[in-house]
Amino acid sequence: MGKIDIASLSLDELISAFSKINLPKFRAKQVYEWIHKHFAQSFDEMTNINKSMRVQLNEQFEILSCTVERKLVSSIDGTIKYLYKMNDGEFVESVLMQYKHGYSICISTQVGCKMGCTFCASTIGGCRRNLSASEMLAQIYSAQRDSGVRISNIVLMGMGEPLDNYDNVMRFLNLVSDENGVNIGLRHISLSTCGIVPKIYELANKKLQLTLSLSLHAPNDELRSKTMPINRRWGVNEVIEACKYYFAQTGRRISFEYALIDGVNDGALCAAQLVNLLKGMVCHVNLIPVNTVAESGYRRSNKKNVKEFCDYLNDNGINTTVRRTLGSDINASCGQLRKTTMDSRGENT
Ligand code: SAH
Q1: Which pLDDT value is given to residue 276?
Q2: What span, in angstroms and rounded, lies between the C-alpha atoms of 226 and 223?
Q3: Whose CA is nearest to atom 6 of ligand 1?
Q4: 342 CA to centre of own chain
Q5: Catalytic residue among 62, 90, 93, 257
């Protein structure tokens, strides 16, 4: 039988797993804190656990951690991009960014992605597998261990579609916000989705204080279906309805992501349609000049168009900002480092 993925267990689950092998509750609490407070990557680091118990733990449990395969530090703004190697040899990416209010990490939820958005590097090559809750945590813990900073904000905006790995993401959210662990409150976490509508409703019904980011990128079905295949399943109106429901249930302002692509979705007509679509909603629009991915052939909108688009939205009552570009010298956007690493090794098949 395989070993139990111990870092994906809640404290209660760990207590009951330990009781089955006659280990007392306080031992579960100690081990839980070693993993989730002190970021231990092996049982041998747990100095208040005696040798024979460590041997026992090693036989039955494993701590799924990740190792830093590559690390790029931006000379412009200090942003750090990590390429992590998981236990089975797969690679995922995380980005650690410094903002005025503290450190924020962007983590991956899957190895690759199957959503097929035409502008995105993560989806080239499809989805290889889901990440476990512990593997999402490991990206944060490894970054904290490596950088020595305290991370206060998390965005689920790396590789993968979080709502396509719903159960593990929910487990992750419970663990990461647990006060016995790393204790990052849900108010400091954003989940970004391309718009898997039934899962947005399911999430809304949980009434979490989590921010929902919706990757919109186009204001009408014709255009959105061209760049985001998910839109052929759930169209613009359905996804906006789901966002309104999310706000009604949680009181959390929705954040819309809109990557501006030169000549594709950055014109005056799109801006006007976007205003009509979002009018009256409690929301915020994040404009991102698209990051060029060689395969897509898309170019980012020029500065003048970005400014005009942004001003038009603000002038018409839609709260809009242009996302500050961090780590532009280190290929910081999602999927790109993994892809270039695998391409250069001939592994991207
Ligand atoms: N699957 C989720 C989260 C991962 S992508 C989602 O779709 O939201 C994180 C964000 O980056 C999304 O808004 C995504 O659309 C955007 N994105 C992907 N490729 C991009 C690119 N080349 N330039 C700008 N934004 C991009």
Answers
A1: 98
A2: 5
A3: 193
A4: 21
A5: 93
276-329 tens-digit pLDDT: 999 999 999 999 999 888 777 899 999 999 999 999 999 999 999 998 777 777
Instruction: Tell me the domains of the chain and their CATH numbers.
Output: 4-62 (1.10.150.530), 66-344 (3.20.20.70)
Would you state the structure tokens that stand for residue 151, as one six-digit string? 């991370």
Kindly state if the Cβ of 155 falls inside 6 Å of ligand 1: no
At position 55, the amino acid (one-letter code) is V
Tell the residue nearest (CA) to atom 22 of ligand 1.
291
CA gap 332, 139 in Å, rounded: 16
- Residue 218 contacts by C-beta under 8 Å, 6 or more apart in sequence? 224, 226, 227, 228, 231, 236, 265, 270
- Whether the CB of 259 sits within 6 Å of ligand 1: yes
Q: Are 168 and 132 in contact (CB under 8 A)?
A: yes
* Encoded amino acid at 62, one letter: E
178 neighbors 111 (Cβ within 8 angstroms) = no
Single-letter code of the amino acid located at 212: L
Ligand 1 atom with least separation from CA of 293: 22
Summarised one tens digit per residue, pLDDT across range 329-341 is 776 565 666 766 6
Dig out the tokens for 66 from the structure. 């990740």
- pLDDT at 348 > cutoff 50: no
CA nearest ligand 1 atom 4, residue:
157
